[in-house]
From TrEMBL:
Pfam families: ABC_tran (PF00005), TOBE_2 (PF08402). InterPro entries: AAA+_ATPase, ABC_SmlMolc_Importer, ABC_transporter-like_ATP-bd, ABC_transporter-like_CS, Mo/tungstate-bd_C_term_dom, P-loop_NTPase, Transp-assoc_OB_typ2. Coiled coil: none annotated. Keywords: ATP-binding, Nucleotide-binding, Transport. The keyword Secreted does not apply. One of its GO terms (molecular function) is ATP binding. SUPFAM superfamilies: MOP-like, P-loop containing nucleoside triphosphate hydrolases. It comes from the Bacteria. Residues 6-236 form the ABC transporter domain. It comes from Actinomadura vinacea. This is ABC transporter ATP-binding protein. SMART domains: AAA.
């Protein structure tokens, strides 16, 4: 096995006695794209800044390429960083911005010229080399920042919410761009994001943080399809948290809950509950439907445009899509986790 590029061993970082990151163990494999994902304040940026060397851990160790780097200053770590704010030098041209890190490393002028040319080609900006940052669009500025980080051939490329300043369309385009650059260069990358779609699309490994701790990690499909806790499920858009008779606490995505037609028979392995439509919100191709079942709300997705508030409906909860959750999982909304009563079920 090759040495991991980054290893965090029992890393804790406190601010005024409060831990922003607690006892974190993290391994970043060579050539892989790792995403740190979680809600605001969960410790993503603190973790990234410790890897970069801008913050020291309160305790624990950081290894880069297998060597202890816990107290090494940023300039002695071979790291490339891209920020949300681009952080370009406004008075320097695109090529001089990209050359900056190479000049700091005192590379020969000819080598700098070659590398700047290569990375500008890589991000498709060779034709804008003489422009200043303010003459570029947001997406182009972020490409310059990416080129500048890649030019130094870092051991690890650290990306702190690099796409969140871009509009929705451009963000999706730039995701592909980022992935292409990472794949073409073979660089190891660590991305901080609160956007689950971004992590799902880009990452080989997804690490979910909650209040400074890792709560789940693995390939995105695995984590998405089998959230280990209610927190992870909730964060990944599982809206239904139910206690099914004989099954215990489960979670199920709204798009897996079907509104049955009046004469429709449910599949054999499904639970069926009766309720009343509380709301049906049009979303373009379908409706986000909320249904009151007893004293709780079940979320479903339907293409039926005749559903109106107050209408009685039957919902089908396919057993195969119901993911079991730990019994003692803290419930963010306690009213939703009461067991569904037998009399509400039809078999
Ligand atoms: N310099 C600091 N001084 C005091 N507290 C800090 C400092 N930096 C971070 N924190 C606290 O540490 C916790 C984690 O912050 P961090 O910025 O790592 O979270 P995050 O997951 O990156 O959040 P966001 O997505 O909002 O950027 C927060 O509670 C934050 O207020």
């Amino acid at each position: 096995m090759t040495t991991p590029v980054v290893q965090l061993q029992s890393v804790t970082r406190e601010f005024s006695g409060t831990a922003a990151v607690r006892d974190l163990d993290l391994t970043v494999e060579r050539g892989k794209f790792t995403a740190l994902l979680g809600p605001s304040g969960c410790g993503k940026t603190t973790t990234l800044r410790m890897i970069a060397g801008y913050l020291e851990p309160t305790s624990g160790a950081i290894l880069l390429d297998g060597k202890d780097a816990t107290r090494l200053p940023p300039e002695r770590r071979n790291i490339g960083m891209v920020f949300q704010s681009y952080a370009l030098f406004p008075h320097l041209t695109v090529e001089k911005n990209v050359a900056f890190g190479l000049r700091m490393r005192k590379l020969p002028a000819a080598e700098i010229r070659t590398r700047v040319g290569e990375v500008l080609e890589l991000v498709g900006l060779a034709h804008l080399a003489k422009r200043k940052p303010k003459q570029l669009s947001g997406g182009q500025q972020q490409r310059v920042a990416l080129a500048r980080a890649v030019a130094v051939r870092p051991s690890v490329l650290l990306l702190d919410e690099p796409l969140s300043n871009l509009d929705a369309r451009l963000r999706i385009q730039m995701r592909q761009e980022l992935l292409r650059v990472q794949r073409e260069t073979g660089l190891t990358a660590v991305l901080v994001t609160h956007d689950q779609e971004e992590a799902l699309e880009l990452a080989d490994s997804m690490v979910i943080l909650d209040r400074g701790r890792i709560v789940q990690q693995g390939p995105p499909r695995e984590v998405f399809r089998a959230p280990a806790t209610r927190f992870v499920a909730d964060f990944l858009g599982y809206e239904n948290f139910l206690d099914l008779p004989g099954k215990g606490p489960v979670t199920i995505r709204p798009e897996h809950v079907r509104v049955l037609g009046p004469d429709e028979d449910p599949p054999a392995d499904a639970e069926v509950v009766e309720g009343t439509v509380a709301s049906a919100r049009f979303r373009g191709t379908d409706f986000a439907v909320t249904v009151t079942v007893g004293d709780r709300t079940v979320h479903a997705v339907s293409t039926d445009d005749t559903l109106v508030s107050g209408a009685p409906v039957r919902l089908c909860l396919p057993a195969a899509q119901a993911i079991a959750l730990p019994h003692d999982d803290a419930a963010p909304d306690t009213t939703a986790s009461e067991p569904l009563q037998q009399q509400e079920l039809h078999t």
